[in-house]
Design a protein that fits this description.
The protein is mostly beta strands. It has 2 domains: 91 residues, no CATH class; 320 residues, Kelch-type beta propeller (Neuraminidase). The chain is built from 4 helices and 32 strands.
Length: 421
C-alpha cells in the first residue's frame, strides 16, 4: 500500500493516523470472566489462557470461582467453562509441564491449608489427582526448569497472628509423580513470582509478614537458584526506590515476567489506600545488570494497580493478562467488580528491531511495511501480538524517509526507532 501511494501520500495518511491517537501503554479491557477468581491462578497452554481457583469462604460473594476453570478465546473475546477443579482452593501455585496444568496447595477455607496436587489435561478436559505436596502450604512459589517443577516459599501454618513461613524447596518430577527436597531458600518470601532465565530461577524481592498486620518485612534481595548445583546465590538488589515511603500502610505483591532478555516487575497493592504504589513498572536487564523505571500513570483504567496484580496474571505473547478484582461491603452484603485486562509489553520494553523488520537488518522496505499495515488493518496478530497504530505510523514514517533506522534505548517505543542517515 505505502509503496503504491508514494511517500507524499504516505505522510498524509500517517498524519491522519496520528490524529486518531496513539494507543501507547493503554490497558485493554476484555470480556469479564464467567466467575470471580480473586486469589486464583492463570496459566497459558498452547497460546490459550486458563483461569481457575479463587476465594471460597465468603459465601455472600457472587459467582464464586473457587473450583471453577474457564478458558479465554482471544478471537471471539469470550470465556468458556471447563471441567471444574476437584476441590475449592485459593492462594495455590500453578505450573505447566508438557502441556498440562498443575495446581499445588493453597487454602480450601480460611486458615485451612492444603497439600493436594491436581493436574489438568486440556486435550481431554479432565483432572487427575497426583501425589501430595510434602507440606500443607499457602501462597507457594513455583517455577519449571528442564521438565521439572520447583516449589517453595509461602506459609505452612498460621493462626493469623504469627505466620509460620516456609523456606523448604521441593522438586517435582512429573514422569515419576514424586517430590524430592532441595536446598532451602535463604530468605523465605511470598507475594512474588519466580521467573527462569538461562536455566536459573530468579526470585525478585517479596515480603515476609511477622504478623498478618502491616507493616510487612520487605525484601530487596534477588535470590537465584541453580538447579545444576542445587545452590542459592544473591544477585543485585532491587532499586532503592522500589518500595515507596508509604509502604507500611499497605500490603503488596510483585509480579515478574521475563520478556526478551529482561525481567519486567509490576507492583500491586493488596489492601489499603496507597495510590502511589503500583503506578510504576521496573525493567531489569540481565545482560547489563541495570534497571529502568516507567511511570504507568494514566495508562491503566484505574488510578493504580491496586487490587490487581496481587490477583491472577499471566504472560501470553507480548501481553500481560491480569484480573482486576475489587471487593467492598454495602449494607451488610459483599459486592465485587471483576474484569480482565491486558497490557502490551512491547509498549514498555524497547526491542532493538521494529516488529515490521522481520529480517532484523535495520532497514524497513515497502513490502515489510505493507504487510505490517495490512495485518493491522485486518486486525490480525503479528508474531503472536496485536498491532497498534503507533507502531504502524512509526514504520511508515521511517520508510518514507528511506527505511534506514537505528535503536535509541533512552526512548520509549515507538520513538526508540529513529531515522539513520
Amino acid at each position: 500500500m505505502f509503496n503504491r501511494l508514494g511517500k507524499k501520500a504516505t505522510l498524509v495518511i500517517l498524519a491522519g493516523l496520528m490524529l486518531a491517537g496513539y494507543s501507547k501503554l493503554k490497558a485493554e479491557q476484555l470480556a469479564n470472566s464467567l466467575y470471580n477468581h480473586g486469589g486464583g491462578e492463570m496459566a497459558v497452554v498452547n497460546d490459550k489462557l486458563y483461569l481457575f481457583n479463587g476465594y471460597s469462604w465468603n459465601v455472600s460473594r457472587k459467582l464464586n470461582g473457587a473450583n471453577k476453570l474457564e478458558v479465554y478465546n482471544s478471537v471471539s473475546n469470550t470465556w468458556t467453562e471447563l471441567t471444574p477443579v476437584p476441590e475449592t482452593r485459593s492462594h495455590s501455585t500453578s505450573f505447566v509441564i508438557d502441556g498440562k496444568i498443575y495446581t499445588v496447595g493453597g487454602q480450601q477455607w480460611q486458615d485451612n491449608f492444603s497439600n493436594k496436587v491436581f493436574r489438568y489435561d486440556p486435550q481431554t478436559n479432565t483432572w487427575s489427582v497426583m501425589n501430595n505436596f510434602p507440606l500443607n502450604a499457602h501462597s507457594l512459589l513455583s517455577a519449571t526448569v528442564d521438565g521439572k517443577a520447583y516449589v517453595f516459599g509461602g506459609t505452612i501454618t498460621s493462626n493469623y497472628t504469627r505466620p509460620n513461613w516456609n523456606s523448604y524447596m521441593y522438586q517435582y518430577n512429573p514422569q515419576t509423580d514424586t517430590w524430592v527436597q532441595k536446598s532451602r531458600i535463604p530468605l523465605d518470601v511470598q507475594c512474588t513470582n519466580p521467573i527462569v532465565h538461562n536455566g536459573k530461577i530468579y526470585v525478585f524481592g517479596g515480603i515476609h509478614y511477622q504478623t498478618y498486620n502491616p507493616p510487612p518485612l520487605i525484601r530487596y534481595e534477588i535470590q537465584i537458584y541453580d538447579p545444576q548445583t542445587d545452590s542459592w546465590a544473591y544477585g543485585s538488589n532491587l532499586p532503592a526506590d522500589f518500595y515507596t515511603s508509604s509502604i507500611p500502610n499497605c500490603g503488596f505483591c510483585i509480579k515478574t515476567f521475563e520478556y526478551g532478555n529482561k525481567a519486567v516487575l509490576f507492583q500491586s497493592s493488596v489492601y489499603g489506600s496507597n495510590t502511589e504504589f503500583g503506578k510504576y513498572v521496573y525493567v531489569y536487564s540481565f545482560e547489563n545488570d541495570t534497571w529502568k523505571k516507567y511511570d504507568l500513570t494514566g495508562h491503566l483504567p484505574f488510578e493504580s494497580i491496586h487490587f490487581t496484580l496481587a490477583q491472577p496474571s499471566a504472560l501470553l505473547g507480548d501481553h500481560v493478562y491480569f484480573l482486576y478484582d475489587l471487593v467492598w461491603g454495602v449494607a451488610g452484603d459483599t459486592l465485587y467488580e471483576s474484569g480482565i485486562y491486558r497490557i502490551n509489553l512491547a509498549h514498555i520494553i524497547s526491542k532493538e528491531h521494529h516488529p515490521a523488520d522481520l529480517n532484523e537488518d535495520f532497514i524497513l522496505i515497502s513490502q515489510e511495511v505493507d504487510n505490517y499495515f495490512n495485518s493491522w488493518k485486518q486486525g490480525n496478530l503479528w508474531q503472536n501480538a496485536t498491532i497498534d497504530i503507533d507502531f504502524v505510523t512509526r514504520a511508515g514514517y521511517l520508510w518514507s524517509l528511506d527505511g534506514n533506522y537505528s535503536f535509541d534505548e533512552s526512548k520509549n517505543p515507538p520513538e526508540c526507532w529513529i531515522h539513520r542517515d
